[in-house]
Amino acid sequence: MGWLDIFEFIPMWTWLIILTVVLLYFYGTNGHNVWEKMGIPGPKPRIFFGNILDFGRLGLVKQTEEWKKQYGPIYGLYFGRQSTLIINDLDILKEVLVKDFQHFTDRRETVSRSYVEKGVFFQGGADWKRIRNIITPTFSSGKLKLMIGNINKCGGLLSDNLVMKAKKGETVDVKRCFGAYTMDVIATTAFGLDIDSQTNPDEPFVDNARKLFAQTKLASTTVLIAMIFPFVKPLFKLLDVGFFPAGPSNFFVRSIKAMIEQRKTEDEATRSQRTDFLQLLLNAESDEINDEKVSNGTQTKVIKRLTLEEIIGQAFLFFVAGYETTANTLHFIAYHLAKNPEVQEKVIKEIETQVGNREPTYDEVNKLTYLEQVIIETLRFNPPVVMVNRKSSEDVTFKGIHIPRDTTVMIPIYSVQHDPENYEDPEEFRPERFDPATKKESNPVTFLAFGYGPRLCIGMRLAMVETKIALVYALRKVRFVKCSKTPEKLEYSNVGILSTKEPIILGVDLVNQS
Fold first, then answer.
1. Smallest Cα–Cα separation from 112: which of 219, 202, 23?
2. Are 147 and 463 within 8 A, CB to CB?
3. Are 396 and 100 in contact, with CB atoms under 8 Å apart?
4. Residues 244-296: pLDDT tens digits?
5. How far apart are the first and last CA of the chain?
6. Cβ neighbours of residue 219 closer than 8 Å, sequence gap 6 or more
7. Distance (Å, whole) CA 272 – CA 274
8. How far is CA 344 from the centre of its chain?
9. Which of 41, 126, 438, 484 is found 20 to 30 A from 372 (Cα to Cα)?
């Protein structure tokens, strides 16, 4: 029997199956040799998935640490079909984030709902620059001073809540406790709302905020499919499917739309008295067109304004980012204070000296320098965002490392901030590292919790003020202490936002007021 006979003997459907398998194999492995060709080390990718499944065993934090030990500070991965370069080298990170920012302005496109992707965090190019310029004034020192009164009110409720827990001898789920506080702060400073999440644990805003970050199978599957089959992203956008679950996402979008409609019915006098984030966005909204012509007498320029969709996107991002990151930071601070009572006592002494029992002002809050060191060290130890990315717009080469156009560069924040080359004994909690009077001259790229360069976190100053005020009110009344449910070592879940597998439970003791 010759080859021709064999071909005739095998049915056509069998040949179709073989052809399909071969085509799928080539599709599933296409591009998985980029780093090998360039001599860049990295774990072997799997067909279709690349290295995504490898994170399932150890989780995002531990797995990247293991790969760094195995392959060095620069190694290549594949997120599905996306070639991704993990960079721990500080010189190259400085190039990417600052010096050559023009070629790394944008982040990698994500699978997001239509309103979410309009947020400044996800935007790129000219739209990112325009939106950032519009919303930056919200976070000026002048605006923050106007917000202090409302933040103090939220701090008072937090203090009352913790005192009640202490008197009853109850333990505290610190993430839920601080999550309610941060939601109250967001609601009042950004949207002029008084929702009182702290006395109402089932308040819809904070309940839906928690659900936004619950890792759902649908969300995980959507992201995975988009990585393996990028051509389906337009379909997901059409179906309005994304990482955040539909229920809580729709709740916030509906709430924001309702607030916008209500604001538009107000008279000019009422609107002019509002200084919150939402009003600033509405003041920058376009009408029929998306431009505004401004003349200075000699020339006319066109300023792009915000669309309604962009306003909703910024407002949604404010809810999401403001709630999760600050609540995360506060609950990790409480954990470190409970484990390091000598640090907690030093913070309390500083609060007594600088603020006493007064309602803290913006200037007094900025004098809490040791408290700031505690916050910064917590952000180093437990950065809310484990890693961020940038996308190269051109072929570039740094220190002999070639980064092809359209490559995702991953900045492993947790790894950089736990590298013994950057911090001595990085697994120890030492606020004194950041004492300006004693710390050594250090490379600013070693601390990336707020980002670095032009895309530095726009809400950084608000987050610091909000965090300090929460701790002032809490530590004037209670001390955080370990209890039988407090973990000695934290285990992190496998998500991009740093969160623990189990809630952090602490005890609270009343401070002796005598």
1. 219
2. no
3. yes
4. 777 888 888 899 999 999 888 888 888 888 878 888 888 877 543 344 454 45
5. 102
6. 242, 243, 244, 245
7. 5
8. 27
9. 484
Phi-psi group of 50: left, alpha or beta (phi > 0 → left; psi -120 to 50 → alpha; rest → beta): left
CATH superfamily of 38-510: Cytochrome P450 (1.10.630.10)
Least confident window among 14-28, 237-251, 409-423: 237-251
457 is in an annotated binding site: yes
Instruction: Determine which of 49-63, 203-217, 268-282, 485-499 has the lowest per-residue pLDDT on average.
Output: 203-217
Residue among 55, 13, 156, 82 nearest 407 (CA)? 82
Secondary structure of residue 486 in the 3-state scheme: coil
Q: CA–CA distance from 487 to each of 73, 156, 374, 383, 497 (Å)?
A: 31, 28, 20, 19, 20
How far is Cα of residue 387 from the mean position of the Cα atoms in its chain?
9
Whether the Cβ atoms of residue 364 and residue 354 lie closer than 8 Å to each other: yes
DSSP 421: T
Q: Could you tell me whether strands 82-87 and 74-79 are parallel, antiparallel, or unpaired per DSSP bridges?
A: antiparallel
User: At 78, is the secondary structure helix, strand, or coil?
Assistant: strand
Beta bridge partners of 83: 78
The span from the CA of 439 to the CA of 76, in Å, is: 34
Task: Return the amino acid letter for 152.
Answer: N
Q: State the Rg of the chain over Cα.
A: 25
Are 473 and 156 in contact by the 8 Å Cβ rule? The answer is yes
Q: Rounded to two decimals, what is the model's pTM?
A: 0.90
Q: How many CB atoms lie within 10 A of CB 496?
A: 14
Q: Please say whether the dihedral angle defined by the alpha carbons of residues 18, 20, 23 and 27, taken in this order, is positive or negative.
A: negative
Distance CA 183, CA 384 (A): 17
Q: The tokens 């080359």 sit on which residue?
A: 421
Distances (CA, A) of 479 to 260, 331, 353, 451, 510: 41, 13, 17, 31, 6
Strand runs labelled E in 163-265: 172-173
The pLDDT confidence band at residue 367, using thresholds 50, 70 and 90, is very high
**d(Cα 263, Cα 260) in Å, to the nearest integer?**
5
| Strand ranges inside 182-305, DSSP E | 291-295, 300-304
Instruction: Output the six-digit token pair for 449.
Output: 């919790």
Q: Provide CB contacts within 8 A for 94, sequence distance 6+.
A: 443, 445, 452
Domain-wise residue ranges, the chain: 38-510
Quick check: helix, strand or coil at residue 316? helix
- The two tokens of residue 353 are 């000296």
